[in-house]
Write a structure and sequence with these properties.
- The structure holds two protein chains of two kinds.
- Chain A is built from two helices and four strands.
- By secondary structure, chain A is of the alpha+beta class.
- By secondary structure, chain B is of the alpha+beta class.
- Chain B has one domain: Cytochrome P450 (Cytochrome p450, Orthogonal Bundle).
- Classes of the chains: A alpha+beta, B alpha+beta.
- The interface between A and B is medium-sized, with 23 and 26 residues.
- Chain B: It holds the Pfam family p450.
- Chain B: It comes from Sphaerisporangium krabiense.
- Chain B: Keywords: Heme, Iron, Metal-binding, Monooxygenase, Oxidoreductase.
Chain lengths: 66, 398
């Protein structure tokens, strides 16, 4: 699994950090998404999928075959 | 499509049960989660009651939230709308204006920054509980606990002296009361703008360590814009969390098994907050978006210029998204609910609100193990006439 994040689209709601705080963080100044683990370990995949699903701006996507 | 193109419905406001959305929603959602609706000004637009349809509308950039193009779902909202257009009120603007404001503010509301506020929120909360104890049983939980906590927190964050809270609390409340005359609401808004305008001018002379001073320091906004944005945050930070704290407590007291579960296991505070947000959905009369071009959603075509009222309450009770949606279950995974909205306007203060509740409910229940309603539950007056749902007063004893 590989995570892609579009900081242009991101609105800094923080739902990814709220859902999977070990995988995502937010930029100090703009609050936009920072991906800590672009290729998260399998035991975090479910949480990452939830984070992608709850992202309000559609800034996150995943490709499964990476 | 079978029977779904019936006569346009009007937005229902009468609740058969105080904690459930109007029953019409359930029937309509089963029939057509997006259906024609007659707006208060005669406009024929749409009503979204399904979770998927609601999310689709709120996430789609082809919908505008500009106050000048949206129609009011219920008559009182006409007043709200005439008030919502002034510089800095970025909630009711579209990109790129909205983006400009949101970008300057999101860094101030990150999950990490909000967590840094936890010790301060814990102190504010325990101070209020001390005050309740001194006051003695019974008290009105709204005045003694639910309103002061978010009020103190948003004042500190923005750098607004809490000693002035009587004034802006009154104005904020007048603004959100849908029964008020347009003159009264306009007066309240002018009063709020006047107050904050003075504050911004003072902070330009003597900056402090607060959000308004921080916005001034960016050099990217005019004082008029900072004033508007600050009024928005002050009002939004006030009655929202206050009503969740009071109505949430009322709900727990009326669901003793859920209350006992939360008391027994404080680690349930986080899912309990999400579930109460979903179950209660206090933003209960909108939001509204208007299509800027023809948009197809769930097989229906929304024409350019048509408004859609999204019922967040109905969407959060959609059985297609949440099993047994009309039951309160604080152990369920309710994250993904739409209580804070969805899309680019999703609540800026949501992480702050979560922390205030995650600290507030367990602290209240922990301090007063015998907490109970001081009047019969059916006699508690609900805020049906307010833009934010809740209870007007909540007499509690212990």
């Amino acid at each position: 699994m590989r995570i892609k994040a579009d900081t242009e689209v991101c609105i800094g709601a923080g739902m990814c950090v709220f859902t999977a705080g070990d995988v995502f963080d937010q930029d100090e100044d703009e609050g936009t998404v920072v991906v800590l683990l672009p290729e998260p370990p399998p035991d975090r995949h479910a949480a990452v999928r939830r984070a992608v699903q709850v992202c309000p701006s559609g800034a996150l996507s995943i490709s499964e075959n990476a | 499509m079978t029977n779904a193109m019936h006569e346009p419905v009007t937005f229902p406001v009468t609740r058969e049960h105080p904690l459930d959305p109007p029953q019409d929603f359930t029937r309509w959602r089963e029939d057509a989660p997006l259906r024609p609706m007659l707006f208060a000004d005669g406009h024929v637009g749409w009503l979204a009651t399904g979770y998927a349809a609601s999310r689709a509308v709120l996430a789609d950039p082809r919908f505008s939230n500009d106050v000048q193009v949206t129609h009011p779902p219920i008559p009182q909202r006409i007043r709200q709308q005439t008030l919502a257009k002034f510089p800095g009120f970025f909630l009711r603007e579209d990109p790129p204006e909205h983006t400009r404001f949101r970008r300057l503010l999101t860094g101030q509301f990150t999950v990490r920054r909000m967590r840094l506020l936890e010790p301060r929120i814990e102190k504010i909360t325990s101070d209020r509980l001390d005050a309740m104890e001194r006051e003695g049983s019974p008290v009105d939980l709204v005045q003694s606990f639910a309103l002061p906590i978010p009020s103190l927190v948003i004042c500190e964050l923005l750098g607004v002296p809490y000693s002035d809270h009587d004034r802006f609390q009154r104005d904020s409340s007048a603004l959100l009361n849908l029964d008020n005359s347009i003159e009264r609401a306009r007066e309240a808004m002018e009063s709020l703008l006047d107050y904050v305008r003075g504050l911004v001018a003072r902070k330009r002379e003597e900056p402090g360590d607060d959000l308004i001073s921080g916005l001034i320091a960016t050099g990217k906004l005019t004082d008029v814009e900072i004033t508007g944005a600050s009024v928005l945050m002050l009002v939004a930070g006030h009655e929202t969390t206050a009503n969740m704290l009071a109505l949430g407590t009322y709900t727990l007291l009326r669901n003793p098994a859920q209350l006992a579960a939360l008391r027994a296991d404080p680690s349930l505070a986080e899912p309990a907050v999400e579930e109460l947000l979903r179950y209660l959905t206090i933003v209960h009369l909108g939001p509204v978006r208007t299509a800027t071009e023809d948009v197809e959603i769930e097989g229906r075509t929304i024409r350019a210029g048509q408004s859609v009222t999204v019922s967040l309450s109905a969407a959060n009770r959609d059985p297609g998204r949440f099993g047994d949606p009309d039951s309160l279950d604080i152990t369920r995974q309710a994250t993904g609910h739409l209580a804070f909205g969805h899309g680019i306007h999703q609540c800026l203060g949501q992480q702050l609100a979560r922390i205030e509740m995650r600290i507030g409910y367990p602290a209240l229940l922990g301090r007063f193990p015998g907490l109970r309603l001081a009047t019969p539950g059916e006699e508690v007056a609900m805020r049906s006439n307010m833009a934010i749902y809740g209870v007007h007063r909540l007499p509690v004893a212990w």
